[in-house]
Amino acid sequence: MEEGAIIKHNIKKAPKTGEWRYMKPEVDKEKCIGCSTCVPFCPEAAIDMKHETRDMKQKNKKPKADIDYEYCKGCGVCAEVCPVKAIVMRKK
Ligand code: SF4
Ligand code: SF4
Hints:
Layout (H helix, E strand, L loop, with lengths): L22 E5 L10 H4 L5 E4 L3 H5 L5 E4 L9 H5 L5 E5 L1
Antiparallel strand pairs: 1-4, 2-3
């Protein structure tokens, strides 16, 4: 049997896929219900759930989707899967 190899991902060497983007997803933080549905669908792992303020965290409010534009390539998958249409794709 052939032996395989494990290639470890190194974020510092990852290409900045944000340079490919010509459409930009924008999150409407008022509409976002903090469901995290978009997070696992992003092919660039560019979405994190974040509290906008310390106050929100202290009050145990749900964190909202936050996009890292250095790695977001503008594919639009997040906008497609969002159940409340909180993400809108706009021309960059
Ligand atoms: S547009 Fe694509 S790459 Fe950018 S955050 Fe949404 S799913 Fe991720
Ligand atoms: S799928 Fe929509 S509502 Fe859910 S966290 Fe993402 S942006 Fe917010």
